[in-house]
Amino acid sequence: MYTVAQLIGGVWGAGEEAGDLVVHDPATGAAVTAAPVATPDEVGKAVAAARGVAAEWAATPPAERAAALHQAADAVSAAADELAEATTAEMGKPLADARGGVEAGIATLRQYAELAPARGGRTLHGAPEALDFMTPQPRGVVAVITPWNDPVAVSCGLLGAALVTGNVVLHKPSERTPATGWLLARAFDSALPAGVLSLLTGGAETGAALAGAEVDVVAHVGSTVTGRAVAVAAARSGAKVLLENGGSDPLIVDADVDPVWAAGQAAIGAFANAGQICVAVERVYAHRDVAEDFVAALVERAAALRVGPGGDPATDLGPLVDRRHRDQVHGQVTAAVADGARIRVGGTLPEGPGAFYPATVLDNCRHDMALVREETFGPVAPVVVVDSFSEALRCAADSPYGLAATVLTGSMSHAQRAWRELPVGTVKVNAVFGGAPAGAAHPRRGSGQGFGYGPELLDEFTAVKAVHIEAPGGGHW
Ligand code: NAD
To answer: Whole-structure pTM over 0.85, yes or no?
Structure first.
C-alpha cells in the first residue's frame, strides 16, 4: 500500500494527512494507495509558497536549470521500476507499457534539458547605436494538472518543459494515480532547489482550486469537459491556459488496402492500453469494397488478445482504470446496440473482480451514434461502412474533436487530400502510431489549444519580451 505525502513549500507531508483518497487496483479491487486531498486553503498556501521562490529559480542560469533536469531524469531512471509498478497497480496497464511510459518520460526530460538552454530569442536590426532584441522569460508559477492514462510520460513532458524554462510548478496528478505522481515528485524534488516543485493530491475539487488560483499558467491534460472548466477558471484569474484534451480519432480504410493489414493497424490503434490513449482509434470508416473482410480480420485480432492483470507479462489487454469508467464504456456500447449496431466480438461485462472489459468490435454503426461521435476511451472499435473516400473524409472531419486521424490508403492523392482537409492536429498515413521525434501539433476544436509536447512546449512556458536600449541623451555609452 502506497501512503502518499504532499509537497508544499518544500516540505514533505504538509497539508492534510494521507487517507482521504483511496485508489483500488483495477485488476483485483484491492486498495493500493492512500493519499491526502488538498483543500482550497492548502492550494492557496502552496501557490503563495511557490510565488516566494519563483524569482530565484527564474534567475538561475539556464545551464544550471538544465543540469538539474538531467539530474531529475537520472532520479526518474533510478526509480523506473517502482514508477512502472505503481502505474500498473493504480491504473492497470500492462507493466511493459507502463515501463515504456517511464522511458518516454525520461527521454523527454533529457530532450528538454538539451534544448532549453539552446533556445534563445533574436536580435533585431534597430538603429546602429541602439541595442534591440527579443528574449523569452519564465512566466512564473505554473499549475500542471494531469490525467491517469500515461501518467509518467505526460507529467514528465509538462513538468520538464515548465521547470527548465525557469518556472516554479505546482503539480496535481490524477486522483486515480496519486502514488505514481508522488514517486515522480520525489525523484524530481531530489534534483531541484526546495520549493521549486510542489505536489498537491486530490480530485476535481483540488484541481478546480488550483486552476482558479493566482497562477500564471494552467496546463491541463485531460477530458474536454474538464478542459473547458479550466479555461473558464483561468479566464477569471487571467492565467494563460494550455489544453491537451479528449479526442475521437477516426481511422479511414480505403478501398485499395489489404483488409487484413488494415485490421492489424486498427487493432493496435483501438486496443492498445485498453483504448485509453488520447490518440486511440475511436471510430473506423471502412470502404464497402473491403469492409467485410476488414471486420472479420479485426474480430480475429480482438478475440486473440489475452486479457489479464497488467502485472502478468502474458497480458495484452489489462483492465480499464476502474468500474466507473467501465460503466461509461459499456453504457456507450449498449446504447449503440439499442440503436442498431451489431456486436461482432466482446461487448459483455465479464464476471469476477476488477474492471476488465473485452476488446469489442461493432459493425452496422452509423456516423451519428454517440459511440462514434463521442470519446469512448475503451477497447471498442465501431465500424461505419462508407461508399467513397470523400464520404469517409467528410465523416472523419465532422467531429467535436480534432486531435489526430489515420488514413490507410494506396492512393497518394487520397493521402494528400487527407492531410490538407482533415481539421485535426496530426494526420498519419498508413501507420496508426507513426511520427518523427520532435514533432508537435496544435489540437483543434474540443481537443485543446497550444503545443502540449515537442520543442514548442518550451515556448508555451515563456513570455517574450522586446528590449530597446539607447545611450542617455541620444549619445554614446
Ligand atoms: P480529467 O479531465 O477528468 O482529469 C484530468 C485531471 O484534471 C485530473 O488531475 C483531475 O483531477 C483534474 N480535474 C478534474 N476536474 C477538474 C476541474 N474542474 N478543474 C481542474 N482540474 C480538474 O481526465 P482523465 O479522465 O484523467 O483523463 C482522460 C482524458 O484525458 C481523456 O479525455 C483523454 O483523451 C485525455 N488525454 C488527452 C491527452 C492529449 O494529449 N490530448 C493525453 C492524455 C489524456
So the answer is: yes
